[in-house]
């Protein structure tokens, strides 16, 4: 691979991790949107500020794509399946996320 290609920004360089512990009520403090049933990657809806879930490291932002939950890829899963994966994870839960890029219009 040429050096010029290595220097270009690739979306994988922008992937980050957020580690969250559930609140006493079992909440993680965000809504999940998208999913395979909608022909989309799962992504975060509203990220509730001031929730009782503890963010141990990183941060979550609205509309970020969810790529992995505790090292398990979730692309191609329905929202229901992603929520089931999250439900069965022990605390803390690690999310790998990436900010969505620009959308192309035909």
From TrEMBL:
<dbReference type="GO" id="GO:0043113">
    <property type="term" value="P:receptor clustering"/>
</dbReference>
<dbReference type="GO" id="GO:0030425">
    <property type="term" value="C:dendrite"/>
</dbReference>
<dbReference type="GO" id="GO:0016301">
    <property type="term" value="F:kinase activity"/>
</dbReference>
<keyword id="KW-0418">Kinase</keyword>
<dbReference type="InterPro" id="IPR036034">
    <property type="entry name" value="PDZ_sf"/>
</dbReference>
<dbReference type="Pfam" id="PF00595">
    <property type="entry name" value="PDZ"/>
</dbReference>
<dbReference type="GO" id="GO:0031697">
    <property type="term" value="F:beta-1 adrenergic receptor binding"/>
</dbReference>
<dbReference type="GO" id="GO:0005737">
    <property type="term" value="C:cytoplasm"/>
</dbReference>
<dbReference type="GO" id="GO:0005886">
    <property type="term" value="C:plasma membrane"/>
</dbReference>
<dbReference type="GO" id="GO:0005911">
    <property type="term" value="C:cell-cell junction"/>
</dbReference>
<feature type="domain" description="PDZ">
    <location>
        <begin position="17"/>
        <end position="101"/>
    </location>
</feature>
<dbReference type="GO" id="GO:0070699">
    <property type="term" value="F:type II activin receptor binding"/>
</dbReference>
<dbReference type="GO" id="GO:0007165">
    <property type="term" value="P:signal transduction"/>
</dbReference>
<keyword id="KW-0808">Transferase</keyword>
<dbReference type="GO" id="GO:0046332">
    <property type="term" value="F:SMAD binding"/>
</dbReference>
<protein>
    <submittedName>
        <fullName>Membrane-associated guanylate kinase, WW and PDZ domain-containing protein 2</fullName>
    </submittedName>
</protein>
<dbReference type="InterPro" id="IPR001478">
    <property type="entry name" value="PDZ"/>
</dbReference>
<dbReference type="GO" id="GO:0030159">
    <property type="term" value="F:signaling receptor complex adaptor activity"/>
</dbReference>
């Amino acid at each position: 691979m040429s050096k010029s290609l290595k220097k270009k920004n690739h979306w994988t360089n922008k992937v980050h991790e957020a580690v969250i512990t559930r609140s006493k009520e079992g909440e993680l403090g965000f809504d999940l949107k998208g999913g395979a049933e909608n022909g989309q990657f799962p992504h975060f809806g509203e990220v509730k500020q001031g929730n009782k879930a503890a963010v141990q490291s990183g941060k979550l932002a609205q509309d970020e794509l969810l790529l992995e939950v505790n090292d398990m890829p979730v692309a191609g899963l329905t929202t229901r399946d992603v929520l089931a994966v999250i439900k069965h994870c022990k605390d803390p839960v690690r999310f790998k996320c990436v900010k969505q890029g620009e959308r192309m219009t035909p």
